[in-house]
């Protein structure tokens, strides 16, 4: 009986001989490739429901043989980025948590979620899609990611969607109130609300996060879905700050702003756009056209677009869908060596 072929190594794409003994999902050809991949994989490595390893934190789990070809069930997408960091501040040193943003900082409703490890080196701001709200979906997402040394804010769009049976919000007018038809870029009220209300309030909030909370603009990452992703890209392009990065799920520049000029030059903000090839709202061909204004505004070298096989108009639902996002987070979130700073015999050397 012919043997079942094993998945390729995720690093070098050669035939795998081992897999992560903790999550049982990711395959490697050698210990060397596993260690090379660990910095990005550890953010997503969730113990398998079949077998849980007691590997020490910060060290890659040892590889195990893949004699059993049966694949374990993939982690729940709400837990796929789960990590655990040890608590700090046992030495009595000043807290590394920054002050929470104040409600008076914006007229928009928001929910602040402190970092899981009391170290606020990064701030990720979440923008929901059309017809959604911050509770419960996006606050649950922000909490489930559990990104190390990262606080989060979920911001709610300002305007209720009319005639919805359930409460939902929109970042700009999206429907004709008489016919119920979806408004296109030719409708002036869309961009007017963004320019006159949404963008000024978000810029005010960003400045508050810098001036009051103490975040540097290069420590701020925006994460948006669909219409919320359009707003995240708009804020990064025209908000007057060079932010660290933007993650966009199924969202691009508003068509009204496609030919506009960025408020900061040069922009160094990194952009990741994730698009499903089964998205009913946009074909892959359309997506490849819509990415061009993003590349023009932010610079082609700063923009990456990933087309995810089998993904529709929604959030990624499995490990292959989440993996580009996890790698992007790993490459763009700052990390502070708290353990090293707390060593009494280590001193800072200034040039």
Question: Can you offer a commentary on this structure?
Answer:
The protein is α/β, with parallel strands linked by helices. The chain folds into two domains: 1-64, no CATH class; 103-339, Alpha/Beta hydrolase fold, catalytic domain (Rossmann fold). The protein contains seven helices and twelve strands. The strands form three sheets. The chain has a seven-stranded mixed β-sheet, sandwiched between helices. A three-stranded antiparallel β-sheet has the order 2-1-3. Strand 9 (220-225), helix 4 (227-238) and strand 10 form a beta-alpha-beta unit. Helix 1 (31-44) crosses helix 6 and helix 3 (188-211) packs across helix 4 (227-238). The chain starts with 17 loop residues before the first strand and ends in a 10-residue tail after the last helix. Mean pLDDT is 82; it is low at 48-91. One of its GO terms (molecular function) is carboxylic ester hydrolase activity. Residues 9-45 form the MYND-type domain.
Structure summary:
27% of the residues lie in helices and 15% in strands. The chain is an alpha/beta fold.
Defining traits:
7 helices, single chain, 15% strand, alpha/beta, 27% helix, 351 residues, Rossmann fold, three-stranded antiparallel sheet
Sheet-strand content, in percent, reads 5-15%
Give the uncertain stretches in residue-range form: 48-91
Q: Widest sheet: strand order?
A: 4-6-5-9-10-11-12
CATH topology of the largest domain: Rossmann fold
**What is the number of E strands?**
12
* Helix vs. strand class: alpha/beta
The CATH superfamily of the largest domain turns out to be Alpha/Beta hydrolase fold, catalytic domain
Q: Tell me, what's the shape?
A: globular
Protein name: MYND-type domain-containing protein
Region (Disordered): 48-80
Family: Belongs to the AB hydrolase superfamily. AB hydrolase 2 family.
Pfam families: Abhydrolase_2, zf-MYND
């Amino acid at each position: 009986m012919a043997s079942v072929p094993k998945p390729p190594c995720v690093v070098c794409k050669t035939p795998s001989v081992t897999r992560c003994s903790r999550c049982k999902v990711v395959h490697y050809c050698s210990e060397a490739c596993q260690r090379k991949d660990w910095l990005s994989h550890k953010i997503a490595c969730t113990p398998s429901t079949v077998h849980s390893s007691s590997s020490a934190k910060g060290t890659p789990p040892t590889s195990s043989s893949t004699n059993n070809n049966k694949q374990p069930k993939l982690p729940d997408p709400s837990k796929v980025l789960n990590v655990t960091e040890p608590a700090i501040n046992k030495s009595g040193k000043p807290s590394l948590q920054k002050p929470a943003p104040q409600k008076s900082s914006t007229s928009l409703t928001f929910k602040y979620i402190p970092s899981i490890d009391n170290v606020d080196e990064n701030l990720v701001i979440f923008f929901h899609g059309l017809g959604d709200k911050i509770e419960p979906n996006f606050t649950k997402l922000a909490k489930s990611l559990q990104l190390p040394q990262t606080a989060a804010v979920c911001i709610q769009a300002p305007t209720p969607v009319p005639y919805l049976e359930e409460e939902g919000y929109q970042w700009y007018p999206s429907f004709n109130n008489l016919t119920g038809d979806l408004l296109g870029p030719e409708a002036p009220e869309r961009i007017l609300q963004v320019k006159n209300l949404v963008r000024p309030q978000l810029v005010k909030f960003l400045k508050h996060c810098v001036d009051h909370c103490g975040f540097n603009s290069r420590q701020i990452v925006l994460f948006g879905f669909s219409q919320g992703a359009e707003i995240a890209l708009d804020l990064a392009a025209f908000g007057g700050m060079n932010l660290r990065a933007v993650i966009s799920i199924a969202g691009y520049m508003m068509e009204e702003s496609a030919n506009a000029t960025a408020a900061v030059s040069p922009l160094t903000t990194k952009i990741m756009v994730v698009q499903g090839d089964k998205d009913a709202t946009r074909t892959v061909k359309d997506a490849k056209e819509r990415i061009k204004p993003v590349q023009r505004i932010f610079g082609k070298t700063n923009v990456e677009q990933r087309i995810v096989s089998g993904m529709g108009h929604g959030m990624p639902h499995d490990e292959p869908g989440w993996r580009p996002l996890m790698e992007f987070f790993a490459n763009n979130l700052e990390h502070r060596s708290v353990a090293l700073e707390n060593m009494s015999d280590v001193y800072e050397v200034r040039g």
